[in-house]
Design goal:
This protein is mainly alpha-helical. About 40% of the residues lie in helices and about 0% in strands. The chain has three helices and no strands. Helix 1 crosses helix 3.
Length: about 80
């Protein structure tokens, strides 16, 4: 090591990538909302309160009708925002 240069520690991370559920399912929407920072729980496939709240926040930020439902417009915008 050269004088005056500090060696920083190296970190290794293991990331498990899994395929997402289809975007037209609640669990698939939860997974995408989680990736986008709207949903903070483990996706469970239930359209429960936390899921509806995440959908409402997403709808609000994307100028959609805020109804907490996975309607066609919300699904289309979610797919556009997530990329697939």
């Amino acid at each position: 090591m050269k004088k005056g240069i500090q060696q920083l520690p190296t970190h290794r991370y293991v990331v498990a990538l899994k395929p997402l559920d289809p975007p037209d399912t609640v669990k698939g929407a939860q997974q995408r909302l989680r990736h986008l920072g709207y949903y903070f729980r483990t996706p469970n496939g239930e359209l429960d309160g936390p899921t509806q709240h995440a959908i409402e926040e997403f709808q609000r930020r994307h100028a959609l009708v805020v109804n907490g439902q996975l309607d066609d417009a919300t699904r289309a915008k979610l797919n556009d925002a997530h990329g697939h």
